[in-house]
């Protein structure tokens, strides 16, 4: 494997180390341990030697023995005391194997000594593999050559050790060969995408001018001040100079070199108009990459009021080099930042100082302290940046992570990545200095740790306090329900107050709000708003109290002023409100009494002025909302007055400033919620609030002096308890029904939006058939970029009026492009077993376009049964051409089928007939037929009743052509004569053609027997059968014609699989949606995909598939019942009749595991889905770059001959691969891959197999290696961590793939528990059922309740019970501590089941009706629900397998 490593910190915190168990390190002791990867981490250097031993063992066991012996000696030198974990066991097992293999391998030795044996094998290996591969330049052979050089190096190392042991000199020829090998090994280094060595310049991806331009620009090191002790190397570039000056790691340099080249090339390749194709980097591309790369850094500098360190020289020739240096420095910092990448502003701080040092070195600045030229603060020794910059900050992260106690500590007691990063949002971060001060507050311990530190010097060193949280401290409280949605709660409370006031006064009509006294009462909502605002301000202080020690003074002042302001308005608004009443009510009189104002005249203007002042911040916020560009400008502004204004509304943070939608988007958003809230409030007022006012007044007017339950209401006079009981459910519904209205409005607006966007244009197979003729036009318009792009119409009108015409028959290029992608989709369906072989044949479009036909060939599923129907129509026709023509052309697909079959019939007959007389006869017949077709009198001139006879003969001919057997030649001759006789005598009714042909024999034919002289098609050269050269195009043509002729049943249900239908409909529908025009692949943005993987399943093992769970159901049986059609398609694809036949072959067992894994939650399924992106890019690149000849031959042609095509560096196949490599990267982050690899875990082998299947797949993981401690006094090894990226190499030379032993861990605990207590569970279920029946009988017998009463009570209790469940969920810790949480979960599941039945029973019933079924499809019902209805298929197995549940 190709490995690229970047080191982690040398000495990470002991608490954070992943300690390996003995089993994980040593694996299963035995011979399988000697796999090249299963070695202790401290002996990783011997892994290549063991790998070579495994490779050569099959060809020369003695050489393999010598390699293992040398590996043992080297292991002893690496760890003589066996102090590493698992080393002692490894050495012992290896020595035991060497003792067993010594004698057998010695007997099989060919030469007299081991030294001569090694020399002979080395020479043989060098000649057979290295010399044979040196002249091959394609990608696969280049990788094999790299592998061969590495193997030869190991063999020479072993050879030299053996010769030294036997005191024998190495032959001069071998030394010369090894010198070449060593030189090439230094050149052929492992690479990810770009092979940058000189010998790989002929690779397809390195032929791109943009790649060459970026490489040339990077290698411009003119004028750079190299260190005095620098040793110049070949092809040095500016990244090598940065490594020398700043001390970056070697592998980081290689990684970021490729990264930077691809970034520049991908931007350069998209430049339009195209720059000069010479290998010169375009300044526009360089500027664009730099702008994107330093966008955050420049924003950070502006936010902190500092000038950036990106100083460019005045000499134009040096500008490009300086820009590349700045970008390379940033990428190298990012490449070694490790966990610091989660702190982007911390990286900005580091880069700010290092870029300034870079500028100082290039400008020749002199340090005022030393009087010498400026040098980096941390020097340029090896790994200086990692040890001196990254490690100290990483240790702070590690300490804070330790303080979190795996998330159990309070949020205020430790800092996460965001908190540490927010330290660099303030100018105070520059107190950290450069070089960074060890006593800075960023590195300080918390205050509580300093209390235990009695050392005065340490106290002085830690004089700065612990920074702690900076902006946000999480406090868990139920009050967050109000705080997080305070505007919503406040709005609903104020609206409720207004509605109650309006409904209570006068007639209760909404127009009563405009009357004087009602409006005056409504104005009291501002007092309520002020009280709510005060509660919000107090709540903010309470919930932020724990952050007071780390909170800045400005934030504290803001909280205090918020509370004071809110309290002041709570006083001001009620006082001024009391002035507005001439005859004040009790509330206003009370307020006036507090201030001694009596019952003087009202002064409403004072209250209005107070309200205006109170609402002024809201008015300003409303203006900002309506004009978001103003708010965006103010939030990004650094002016003091603007910062003061924005400070009151929210704290000034670095992130999230100016992030607002456009004005039109805000308008749509506002209109949606305005309509929703108007509807909700109108419904609440007229349906909920207003009807309750009259009953409430009546209840309140009833005066009862003696309550029956006076203990509960001892002083009640107005039946307040009854009123509360009456209004409480309504108030709860009022606050909760917004979600219901939101669901309704989302459905309505989503449907309208989808209709305008043409979502659901094609939803069913019937709609697909009717619109299929427009699919090629839509495909070419959407996905094929035009050379001269016209401005695309946009807007609603353009979307609704967009129409794609049918592709005319002369536009064969457009049809061929669509056919390539359509066939690729259908082929992927067959590979996934979504369709059968017959369905694939019916769905495919011909790969090889037949230009001789002169028409478009549609998929056979559209033309199925059209030919037999057309034959019946022609046979029954009354001799009127126009009527028959009108009937055939009324069905466009029937017309296409007839035209294609006639054209194919004519071409096949003409291609088979080679005799001169026979050609003349055939040409005369077809000329006559074509003449009558053009004249429109074919039916009137010819007898169509004989067409079925000709049809049957032609079908027989097609069968013979499919078999293509030599022994069928005589039958084919007779068949030709029969067809000729039917055509001339039964259809054309002209015997003259046969007579003329019979009298035409002379010359050489007189030497033939008399009975063969005048017989057409009987001579040896008359017809060409069997076909000498059968091409794929010919096979496809004959097979398609056979399908068109013989398929008599309709293909309306093709494909029958629901998933295949969904995918086809989705693809077809997407072509009609409004989407941006697709660029060429070379002009598209590059993208990468990262999939995290820990210890999930990679590939199911046979044991896991066949192991039944506690209910007796295996995974394989479950999948067979869930996917019955796909299982049958799979058996057909592997040519097996049942499951038992799959067990006889390792290859078939592997196919079975893959089939099951593709239908489970496995990594294999995820990788296959992601790699479809690359396949799509390759097809799209083929459509972009293919010439007319390549396009007509089809994409399948270059797939079938990919090995031949790959030999040519500039071949179309190589170019498609290269452009896909540039644009797409897929990495799986397998965190435990290193551990699995060393322990021999089957998941590591399965991941390796995935990489072998998908060469562009990459796997990233953290490799843990034990290294000898640099301190010789310590005899323990230290651990080093490497960030590793691997890819699969080609299969080893002369070696077989190791056998796959897949053992998946199962949930033993659950199976054992269920088996032991299954009887108890069933008894409990039975008791619960009996108790339920007893309760029902009791309710019917004693209180005389009916079933209707019981159902009503249950429905009435369901909302109350659900509310109780929600309360129990909110109080989960208390309920769990009391032991009732399991009961709550069981009751909640019951509620879900009942609600599901209530909701989906009417849906399932209505789904039988056609109009509801279409609506159901349009609303995109989940496929899982559709398959869930097939539960009866699961129950159709054996009695022991009745359950359909599958253990997770």
> Percent of residues in helical segments?
55-70%
Low-confidence segments: 1-34, 448-464, 998-1013, 1205-1209, 1292-1317, 1411-1448
Number of helices: 65
Q: Please identify the oligomeric state.
A: single chain
User: How many DSSP E strands?
Assistant: 5
Distance between the termini: 34 Å
What profile does the largest beta sheet have?
Answer: 5 strands, mixed
Strand % is: under 5%
Strand order of the largest sheet: 1-5-4-3-2
Label the structural class. Answer: mainly alpha
Task: Report the mean per-residue pLDDT as an integer.
Answer: 77
Rg over CA atoms, rounded to whole Å, is 41 Å
Taken from the alpha-carbon principal axes, the silhouette is globular
Describe what you observe in this structure.
The protein contains 65 helices and five strands. The longest helix is centred in the middle third of the chain and has 39 residues, at 663-701. The radius of gyration is 41 Å and the shape is globular. Residues 1-34, 448-464, 998-1013, 1205-1209, 1292-1317 and 1411-1448 have low confidence and may be disordered. Helix 22 runs antiparallel to helix 23 (553-578) and helix 23 (553-578) packs across helix 25. The protein is 60% helix and 3% strand. It has 1448 residues and is mainly alpha-helical.
């Amino acid at each position: 494997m190709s490995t690229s490593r970047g080191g982690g910190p040398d000495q990470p915190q002991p608490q954070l180390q992943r300690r390996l168990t003995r089993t994980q390190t040593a694996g299963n002791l035995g011979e399988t341990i000697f796999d090249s990867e299963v070695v202790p981490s401290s002996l990783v250097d011997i892994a290549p030697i063991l790998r070579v031993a495994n490779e050569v063992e099959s060809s020369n066991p003695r050489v393999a023995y010598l390699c293992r012996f040398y590996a043992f000696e080297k292991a002893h030198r690496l760890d003589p005391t066996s102090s590493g974990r698992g080393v002692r066991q490894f050495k012992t097992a290896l020595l035991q194997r060497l003792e067993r293999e010594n004698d057998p391998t010695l007997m099989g030795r060919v030469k007299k000594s081991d030294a001569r044996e090694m020399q002979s094998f080395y020479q043989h290996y060098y000649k057979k593999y290295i010399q044979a591969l040196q002249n091959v330049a394609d990608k696969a052979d280049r990788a094999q050559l790299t592998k061969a050089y590495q193997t030869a190096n190991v063999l020479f190392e072993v050879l030299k050790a053996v010769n030294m042991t036997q005191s024998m000199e190495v032959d001069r020829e071998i030394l010369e060969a090894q010198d070449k090998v060593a030189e090439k090994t230094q050149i052929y280094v492992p690479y990810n995408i770009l092979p940058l060595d000189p010998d790989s310049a002929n690779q397809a991806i390195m032929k791109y001018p943009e790649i060459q331009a970026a490489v040339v620009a990077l290698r411009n090191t003119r004028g750079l001040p190299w260190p005095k002790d620098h040793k110049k190397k070949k092809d040095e570039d500016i990244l090598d100079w940065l490594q020398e000056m700043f001390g970056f790691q070697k592998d980081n340099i290689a990684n970021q070199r490729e990264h930077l080249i691809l970034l520049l090339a991908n931007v350069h390749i998209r430049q339009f108009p195209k720059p000069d194709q010479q290998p010169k980097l375009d300044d526009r591309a360089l500027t664009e990459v730099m702008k994107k790369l330093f966008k955050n850094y420049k924003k950070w500098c502006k936010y902190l009021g500092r000038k950036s360190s990106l100083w460019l020289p005045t000499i134009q020739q040096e500008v490009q080099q300086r820009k590349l240096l700045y970008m390379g420095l940033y990428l190298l910092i990012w490449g070694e930042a490790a966990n610091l990448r989660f702190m982007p502003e911390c990286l900005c701080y580091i880069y700010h100082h290092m870029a300034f040092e870079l500028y100082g070195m290039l400008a020749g600045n002199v340090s005022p302290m030393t009087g010498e030229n400026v040098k980096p603060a941390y020097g340029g020794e090896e790994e200086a940046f990692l040890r001196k910059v990254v490690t100290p900050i990483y240790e702070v992260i590690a300490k804070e992570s330790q303080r979190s106690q795996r998330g159990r500590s309070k949020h205020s007691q430790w800092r996460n990545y965001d908190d540490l990063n927010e330290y660099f949002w303030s100018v105070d971060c520059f107190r950290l200095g450069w070089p960074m001060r060890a006593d800075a507050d960023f590195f300080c311990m918390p205050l509580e740790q300093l209390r235990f530190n009695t050392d005065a010097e340490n106290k002085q060193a830690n004089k700065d306090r612990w920074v702690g949280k900076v902006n946000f401290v999480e406090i868990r409280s139920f009050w967050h329900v109000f705080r997080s949605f305070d505007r919503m709660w406040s709005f609903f409370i104020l609206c409720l107050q207004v509605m109650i006031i309006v409904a209570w006064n006068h007639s209760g009509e909404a127009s009563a709000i405009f009357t004087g006294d009602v409006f005056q009462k409504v104005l009291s909502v501002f007092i309520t708003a002020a009280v709510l605002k005060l509660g919000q301000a107090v709540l903010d202080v309470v919930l932020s109290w724990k952050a007071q020690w780390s909170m800045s003074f400005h934030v504290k002042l803001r909280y205090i002023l918020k509370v004071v302001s809110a309290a002041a308005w709570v006083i001001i608004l009620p006082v001024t409100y009391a002035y507005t009443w001439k005859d004040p009510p009790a509330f206003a009189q009370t307020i006036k009494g507090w201030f001694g104002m009596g019952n003087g005249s009202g002064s409403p203007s004072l209250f209005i002025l107070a309200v205006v002042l109170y609402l002024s911040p809201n008015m300003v916020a409303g203006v900002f909302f309506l004009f978001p560009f103003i708010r965006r400008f103010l939030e990004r502004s650094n002016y003091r007055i603007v910062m003061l204004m924005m400070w009151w509304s929210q704290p000034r943070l670095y992130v999230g400033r100016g992030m607002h939608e456009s004005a039109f988007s805000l308008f749509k958003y506002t209109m949606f919620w305005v309509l929703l809230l108007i509807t909700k409030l109108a419904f609440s007022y007229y349906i909920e609030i207003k009807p309750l006012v009259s009953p409430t007044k009546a209840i309140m007017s009833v005066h009862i002096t003696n309550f029956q339950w006076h203990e509960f209401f001892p002083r009640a006079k107005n039946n307040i308890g009854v009123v509360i009981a009456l209004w409480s459910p309504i108030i709860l519904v009022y606050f909760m029904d917004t979600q219901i209205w939101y669901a309704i409005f989302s459905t309505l607006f989503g449907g309208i939006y989808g209709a305008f966007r043409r979502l659901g244009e094609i939803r069913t197979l019937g709609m697909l058939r009717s619109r299929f003729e427009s699919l090629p036009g839509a495909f070419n318009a959407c996905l094929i970029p035009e050379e001269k792009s016209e401005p695309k119409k946009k807007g609603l009108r353009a979307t609704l009026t967009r129409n794609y015409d049918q592709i005319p028959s002369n536009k064969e290029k457009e049809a061929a492009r669509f056919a390539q992608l359509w066939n690729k989709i259908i082929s992927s369906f067959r590979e996934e077993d979504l369709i059968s072989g017959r369905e694939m044949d019916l769905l495919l479009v011909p790969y090889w376009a037949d230009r001789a036909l002169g028409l478009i060939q549609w998929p056979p599923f559209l033309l199925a049964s059209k030919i037999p129907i057309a034959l019946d129509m022609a046979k029954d026709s009354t001799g009127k051409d126009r009527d028959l023509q009108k009937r055939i052309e009324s069905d466009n697909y029937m017309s296409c089928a007839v035209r294609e079959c006639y054209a194919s019939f004519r071409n096949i007959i003409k291609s088979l007939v080679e005799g001169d007389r026979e050609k003349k006869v055939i040409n005369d017949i077809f000329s006559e037929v074509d003449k009558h077709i053009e004249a429109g009198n074919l039916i009137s001139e010819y007898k169509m009743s004989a067409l079925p006879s000709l049809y049957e003969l032609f079908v027989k001919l097609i069968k013979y052509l499919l078999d293509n057997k030599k022994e069928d030649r005589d039958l084919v001759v007779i068949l030709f004569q029969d067809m000729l006789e039917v055509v001339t005598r039964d259809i054309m009714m002209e015997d003259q053609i046969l007579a003329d042909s019979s009298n035409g024999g002379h010359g050489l034919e007189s030497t033939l027997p008399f009975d063969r002289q005048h017989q057409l098609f009987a001579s040896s050269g008359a017809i060409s059968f069997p076909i000498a050269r059968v091409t794929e195009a010919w096979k496809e043509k004959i097979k398609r014609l056979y399908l068109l002729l013989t398929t008599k049943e309709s293909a309306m249900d093709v494909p029958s699989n629901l998933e295949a239908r969904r995918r086809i409909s989705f693809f077809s529908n997407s072509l009609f949606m409004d989407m941006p025009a697709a660029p060429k692949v070379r002009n598209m943005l590059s993208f990468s995909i990262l999939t995290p993987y820990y210890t999930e399943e990679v590939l199911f093992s046979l044991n896991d598939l066949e192991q039944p769970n506690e209910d007796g159901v295996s995974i394989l049986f479950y999948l067979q019942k869930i996917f019955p059609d796909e299982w049958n398609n799979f058996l057909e694809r592997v040519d097996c009749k049942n499951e038992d036949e799959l067990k006889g072959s390792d290859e078939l067992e592997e196919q079975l595991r893959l089939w099951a894994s593709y239908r489970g939650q496995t990594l294999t399924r995820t990788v296959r889905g992601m790699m479809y992106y690359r396949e799509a890019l390759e097809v799209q690149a083929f459509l972009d770059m293919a010439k007319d000849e390549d396009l007509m031959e089809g994409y399948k042609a270059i797939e079938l001959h990919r090995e031949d095509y790959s030999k040519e560096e500039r071949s179309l196949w190589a170019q498609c691969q290269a452009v896909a490599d540039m644009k797409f990267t897929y990495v799986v982050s397998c965190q435990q891959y290193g551990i699995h690899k060393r322990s021999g875990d089957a998941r590591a082998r399965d991941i390796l197999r995935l990489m072998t299947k998908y060469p562009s797949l990459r796997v990233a993981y953290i490799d843990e290696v034990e290294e000898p401690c640099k301190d010789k006094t310590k005899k323990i090894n230290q651990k080093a961590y490497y960030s590793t990226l691997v890819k699969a190499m080609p299969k080893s030379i002369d070696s077989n793939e190791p056998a796959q032993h897949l053992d998946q861990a199962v949930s033993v605990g659950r199976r054992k528990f269920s088996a032991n207590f299954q009887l108890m569970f069933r008894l409990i279920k039975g008791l619960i059922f009996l108790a339920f029946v007893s309760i029902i009988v009791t309710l019917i017998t004693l209180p005389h309740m009916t079933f209707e009463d019981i159902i009503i009570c249950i429905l009435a209790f369901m909302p109350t019970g659900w509310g109780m469940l929600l309360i129990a969920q909110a109080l989960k810790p208390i309920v769990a501590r009391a032991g009732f949480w399991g009961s709550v979960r069981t009751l909640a599941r019951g509620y879900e089941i009942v609600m599901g039945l209530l909701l989906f029973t009417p849906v399932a019933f209505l789904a039988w009706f056609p109009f509801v079924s279409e609506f159901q499809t349009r609303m995109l019902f989940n496929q899982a629900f559709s398959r869930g209805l097939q539960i009866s298929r699961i129950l159709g197995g054996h009695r022991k397998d009745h359950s359909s549940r599958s253990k997770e």
